[in-house]
Amino acid sequence: MTINCKGNLIDLSSPKVMGILNITPDSFFDGGKYKNESDILNQTEKMISDGATFIDVGAYSSRPGAKHISEEEELKRIIPVINLLIKNFPEIIISTDTFRSKVAQETINAGAAIVNDISGGKMDDNMFATVANLQVPCILMHMLGTPQNMQKDPIYNDVTQEIISFFAAQIHKLHQLKLNDIIIDVGFGFGKTIGHNFEILKNLSLFKSLDAPILAGISRKSMLYKTLDISAKEALNATTSANTIALLNGANILRVHDVKEAVQAIKIVNQIS
């Protein structure tokens, strides 16, 4: 249960934390919060000191109904940030949150180490060939539709089994291209109702049959705050509760806005595992 990040083997048999750095103006929780170099560096330094192993940098908002931006705009946003982070934190392990192969290629060239594709290879036919050629770890996320339409009446016959089947097919494609460092992300909130999300969380251990590390991205999502009739800003406690359930059900990476609390959850769960 290891992945190779720029020559460093990261052992995921003990869960790790991925800190979220959104450099978009309209992400659902922290959109527009990190607009200048000082804010970006301060937040990254905080996440690293709080215990993040990975920093996930996203320049394309994937919240439900988010505005579509061009590839050029995405690159214009993200490349300077990758350069800034590599310059100031040379040992940092950056994950690029993108579904575009050109963005993946250019960010890896700039120093990123992982490609995090929210479409699981479905929105760019060149993505799998690109990551296989680069030989970098790839995070495959499941999403029904696109960010613009994914929450318009998502329907499944068996949500868990359908997502497992999706991953099995996509993992097979990458294995044929000789890429072995693959992580799966069930895609909480991406083309799923609240009921679907909690069913997947309950059944998360079933995804271990795919023999790939599992990333859980539940941080402050609507499945939590809508259930409790609170705001995303008030959903830290709910996030920790959901992350704990995910860990108990086999999650290897927690992708979060709040790194310190996620690290604490891992330490507590490790006491009984």
Write up what this structure looks like.
This protein is α/β, with parallel strands linked by helices. 40% of the residues lie in helices and 16% in strands. The chain contains nine helices and ten strands. The protein has helices at residues 37-49, 71-88, 101-110, 127-134, 159-176, 194-202, 222-228, 236-248, 259-270; strands spanning 2-5, 8-11, 16-22, 54-58, 94-97, 114-117, 138-141, 182-185, 214-216, 253-256. The strands form two sheets. The protein has an eight-stranded parallel barrel with strand order 3-4-5-6-7-8-9-10, surrounded by six helices. Strand 1 and strand 2 (8-11) form a beta hairpin. It is globular, with a radius of gyration of 17 Å. The two termini are 16 Å apart.
What is the fold's blueprint, element by element?
Blueprint lengths: L1 E4 L2 E4 L4 E7 L14 H13 L4 E5 L12 H18 L5 E4 L3 H10 L3 E4 L9 H8 L3 E4 L17 H18 L5 E4 L8 H9 L11 E3 L5 H7 L7 H13 L4 E4 L2 H12 L3
Parallel strand pairs: 3-4, 3-10, 4-5, 5-6, 6-7, 7-8, 8-9, 9-10
Antiparallel strand pairs: 1-2
Any descriptors?
273 residues, alpha/beta, two-stranded antiparallel sheet, 9 helices, 16% strand, globular
Spatial shape: globular
Average pLDDT, to the nearest integer? Answer: 92
Elements, N to C (H/E): EEEHEHEHEHEHEHEHHEH
What is the assembly state of the chains in this entry? single chain
- Low-pLDDT sequence parts: none
Integer-rounded radius of gyration = 17 Å
What structural class do helix, strand and pairing data support?
alpha/beta
Give a count of the beta strands, DSSP E runs of length 2 or more.
Answer: 10
Determine the N-to-C terminus distance. Answer: 16 Å
Helical stretch tally: 9
Strand order of the largest sheet: 3-4-5-6-7-8-9-10
Provide the helix percentage.
Answer: 25-40%
